[in-house]
Amino acid sequence: AQFEIVARLQSRVAATHLHLGEAYRSTKNWEKARASFDRVLELDSNNAEVHFDLGLLYMARAAEAEVAENRSGALDFLQQAQAEFVNYRNLMGSRLSRDDPSTAYGEEIQRGIDRTKRAIDRDAARAARDAERAAREAEEAAGGGGDAPAEGDGG
Q1: Measured between alpha carbons, how far is 25 from 10 in angstroms, rounded to an integer?
Q2: Which residue stretches of the chain have pLDDT < 50?
Q3: Considering the entire predicted model, what is its pTM?
C-alpha cells in the first residue's frame, strides 16, 4: 500500500514503479507487477533492471505452470524469461559484473525449455498411441474384423 501511494505521488519516476513491481512480484500479484514494469519501460526504455525483474517474474510463472502441468504455458513463460534476460544483458553491456546471476538464470531457463519440450513431445507421442489404441478397440468392438462371415450368411 505504501509503494502504491509513493507511485501515485512520483508517477514519473521509473525507480518507484520498479520497486512497486518488485513488491507485487514478491506477492505473486503478476498482473500488477507486469503493469508496474510496463510503466517503467514507458518512462525509461533502456532500464536494464526492469528486464531482469521481468525475467524473474516469468521464471516464477513458469514454475507455477509446471506445477499445474500446463507445459505449453510453462514453455511460453520460460521463453519470455529467456528473452528478458537477454535484453537485460544487452542493456548492461560492459557494466555486467562477473558474479551477475543472469548467466546462471539463463542456463537454468535453457535447461527448463529443453526439459519442457521433451515432456511436450512425450505427451504428444502418448496421446497419439492412445488415439491409435482407441481407434483399434472401436473398430474391433464394431465387428470390423472382416474375415468371419456374419451369422445367417450361408450360401
Answers
A1: 20
A2: 9
A3: 0.81
